[in-house]
């Protein structure tokens, strides 16, 4: 998956980190949650706790100025002539889009996306979720990736009329410098009327386990700021613009919590909200990287509710321990579209 670079003159890259419930959503049951056990660190993502706001500003992750020797440009192949997207199957559209990107042809690659397409990058620091809403935001990501000699190797694993799943490997100057390239991802695409409308890419557990030690050595982590707000027992989650927002920066009061799920979007068939406690050695990145398979044994599901588009409902769940993690979902394709956490719980 393409990555965006932001340079920082001070630290090179400031960054923060932060048993399945039998009542599983039918459309989440098929998601294979695979995750290898890895080191976890509890760092609060201040932006998510102060106010969960997605789309995020471009993630300051893949910088090429973090020290070490300069990476030599990687030769790129010449791409084949582009076909009219409407003449191609969904899988052919994905393969052609990737070929244009590997050739450094940003506009040629973007021609396969709908103007209102959304891209979701899942499982990478600091928050485990980046959202790019619309072709213009995706263009900024594509341009920076090409500038860092991004290369993409893909294998289509399943293809229907509208949904395509792909195993992917990626190379980028930053991951080359860290010595962890290529990284592996599980990708999913929705294609409508010859255009990509949704693109989601999730780093695999094995790739995350290789990436994080090298990343943490190269990039200083910012510890969490103490919370000053009083704990609350009510919260509102709004799904709009292809992602979700949490209305309160406050910690939760232990006990029964009431959550209002307000779905303003109407362009997907179904939406869902989940709340979790995790084992102490796991964090948000582990959770997000595990969202392509069955729920892991180290995640306790506190709330799992599906809801139709345009609806507003109130649910309750009980929380006894800290922290809590939240994920919002939509389908098709089955995909996380936003998250928040770790959310502190006060007794």
User: How many domains is the backbone divided into?
Assistant: 2
Structural class: alpha+beta
Strands of the widest sheet, in order across it, are 2-1-6-5-4-3
Going by CATH, the architecture of the largest domain would be Roll
CATH class of the largest domain: Alpha Beta
Order of helices and strands: HHHHEEHEEHEEHEEEEEHEEEEE
Task: Tell me the distance between the termini.
Answer: 41 Å
Rg from Cα: 20 Å
Helix % is: 10-25%
Described by strand count, sense and barrel closure, the largest sheet is: 6 strands, mixed
Shape: globular
Q: Classify the beta-strand content into a percent band.
A: 25-35%
In CATH, the topology of the largest domain is named Nuclear Transport Factor 2, Chain: A
Low-confidence stretches: 3-79
Overall number of strands: 16
Number of helices: 8
Mean pLDDT, as a whole number? 80
What can you tell me about this protein's structure?
With 347 residues, this protein is of the alpha+beta class. It folds into 2 domains: 40-218, Nuclear Transport Factor 2, Chain: A (Roll), CATH 3.10.450.50; 234-346, Immunoglobulin-like (Sandwich). The protein is built from 8 helices and 16 strands. The protein has a 6-stranded mixed β-sheet with strand order 2-1-6-5-4-3. A hairpin with a 2-residue loop joins strand 7 and strand 8. The protein is globular, with a radius of gyration of 20 Å. It starts with 25 loop residues before the first helix and ends with a strand.
